[in-house]
Automatic annotation (TrEMBL):
A single cellular component GO annotation: cytoplasm
CDD domains listed in its UniProt record: FHA_TIFA (cd22714)
Source species, domain of life: Eukaryota
Organism: Falcunculus frontatus (Eastern shriketit)
FHA domain location: 49-121
Protein name: TRAF-interacting protein with FHA domain-containing protein A
Family note: Belongs to the TIFA family.
Amino acid sequence: MSSFEEAETEETVTCLHLTFYHPCQDEKMMFRCLNFCKREQVRADEMAKFGRDSSVCRYNLMDTRVSRIQFSLQFFRKLHTSEYCFEIKNLSKKTKLTVNQTELGYLNKIDLPWKCIICFGDYQILAEIQEGESVDYFETHLHLAEAPILQERCLPSLQPIPENGISPSFFLSQGKSPTEIDENEL
């Protein structure tokens, strides 16, 4: 057997991609302490904290309007499954945290969706989970957005548009309901 065949199977690592945006990031440099260059390993039993207190928080935001500890992310495995997830907890007594449309007050926590937008104050953070198998640690990969995330990620309308291009809401506003017409009758 070759050494290649005897080598241990390489396991994939769960990676949390976080893309940061603030409208004043160029002039205030609040992200200057974040490492945007490479992935960073975090032990599975550690809580990743975000805030302005560098003695407590792993990820520092240099802004006096940010709480000492703004929020935390905890890596965990769902009960009776092999699925790994993150839980986000608001640790700010003054600022509410929004995850997609869910508002979290102080000490509220929820499971982080696999793709979501986290907002507090003027901060916008796009969080995307890349699944992995490692149980010992996860990785974070930080990115900096040039434009607002909420405007970049506008979801298209989920209402289908008929072939004639007239929206069903047009008929409802007219007090009429759409009628089916055989194409041979036109």
